Here is the input.
Amino acid sequence: MMDSDDEPVAARLPPGRFYMTPQGEAALRAEFEARKAERHRVVEIVSWAAGNGDRSENADYKEGKRRLREIDRRLRYLGQRLDQADVVDPATQPQRDRVFFGATVTYLTEQDEQRTVTIVGVDEADLAMGKISIGSPMALAMLKARVGDEVTVRTPTGPSSVEITAICYPAPP
Here is the structure.
């Protein structure tokens, strides 16, 4: 399939799918539980502050209510993410010769720089740790590629080619 520039269109993610590794799910669940515990403590502070009288000039009360709104917003977000998550264990990937979710990919840039990235869920991405989002231009360009394939990545500065030199998955359980 070609786009208006007659270049191949990068692989697209299926709509409504939200991929996450088991480690990513565990991290979100841990944060969810920590926020619930924090919410309980903040509710106690707000309750204490409300008992101190005039709420219009009560900084503890106002700050507590503001903090509760932040916690509730984050809890709703985390709950939705966990409900919508499609947890995929990369160790169970049967086609280990191609790039899919959870793969650790080593590639060469046009400047002959070797880089290694792991394709993870959106909430798990951390470029400093070499983890890129499944929805990133780099990951989308690499999907389904094999060792030796050269793929074109669309970047803000224009198309860039990279060559896949290695694909690795975690060992099966």
The first strand starts at residue 18 and ends at 20. Confidence is low (pLDDT under 50) at residues 1-11. The radius of gyration is 22 Å. The chain has three helices and seven strands.
